[in-house]
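Appendix B. Raw example, untouched.
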Amino acid sequence: MSDLKTALEGAAGEGIISSDQAIRLLPYLAERNIGVNAAAPRNDLSQPREDDETNPLEDSEAPRFIRGFHDVLITIGIIVLLVGLWGLTGYYGPLPAIIILAEILVRRQRLALPAVVLTIALVHWTFWVAVMSFGTQNAGGSGLMTSWITIALPFPPLLALYYWRYRVPLSLAMLLFSLFTLSLAAVFYLIGVATGASNVVLNYPLPSLGIMFAAALGAFAVAMRFDLSDRNRSTRRSDVAFWLHLVTAPALLYTAILLVFQLEARNSDAFFLTGIEHGGYAQALTIVAIVVIMMLVGLIIDRRAFVTAGLMSLGVAIGVILRQNNAGLDKVSFIVLMIVGLIVLVIGVGWPYLRRAVVRLLPTFVQGRLPALR
C-alpha cells in the first residue's frame, strides 16, 4: 500500500494527476489489488512464472523442443513402440505407425519433440530399407558409388512428401542434406567413370577432399540463406538453419582438417596411418587454428554448433601439445579435460560479450545483416 501511495503522490507532484485524483485513486486501486504486490520479492515461490525477468544470456538460437513433460512422456512412448514394432514385424510395421503418429501428434497437436523423433525415425527406416534392399548390390569396386546413389535416391521424395504434409523444419533440413549427398555421390560416380578408378576417394584423395570441402561450403551457404532471412529468429526458417548448421559445422571442420593435412603430407596414406593423436606440433597447431576460426565463425553468426563441433579435436590437439612438452602421461587426460571445460565455460558464459566484441570489428553493412547483438 505504501508503494502505491508513494507512486500516486509522485504522479501528482509531477502534474500527471491532481492531488485530489491521487487521493481518490488510492482506495480504488487498492480494492482491486492493483499495485499492492508490486514490491513482492522475486524469489517468492508463489510468484507467477510470467513475472520472472528474462535472462539476458538466453536466446532463440535453438528450436523449442519441449513444452512440458507431456512431450517427453509421449516421445518415450513413440521410441518404445517403434522399437517393439521393428522387433516384431521387421521394417514393415514402423512406417504405418510413423504415419499414424505423425497425423495425430504432428499435424493435429503440433508437438515439437515428437515431430523431431518421428522425422528421425522416418530417416532411420528409409536408410535401413534402402540398405537391405539395394546396399549389398554392386557394393564393391566400381559399383560403390552406384550403391551410394541407390541408397540415397529414396530420401528426397519421401522427405519432400513428409515436409509438405507436416511442415517439420528438421525434415526440410534432411531433405536438403539428402540432395547434397546424392549430388556428391553422383559427382564421384562421374569422376570414377571418366578416370576408370574403382575408388575415387582413395585414388585421388586431394581432389576428393577438395570436392567434399566445397560441398560442405555449399551446405553452409544454404544454411546461411535460411539464417539471414530471419535475423530475429522468430520463424521456422531459423529452425531449419539450426539443423543445417548442426551438421554443416562438423562437416566443414573435419573436411578442412583433412584437406590441410593432405596438402601438408602430399601422401594419400599419411594422415590415415598416423592419425591426429600421433602427430606433432604442426598438426596440433593446425587443428587449433582451424577450431579457432570455426569458433569465430560461430560467434559472428551466433551459432554455437561451430564451437561444440571442434571440442573433441581441440582436446586431442591440446593433448598432443602437452605430450610434446613431456607432460606426465598420467595427468595429460585430466589437464585436457580441465582446459577444454574451462574454454567451454568461458565461451558459454561470455557468449554475448565475446560476440559483441567480434561483430563490432566487422564493417557496418555486414553487422546489419547478422543476427542482432544482445
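End of appendix B.
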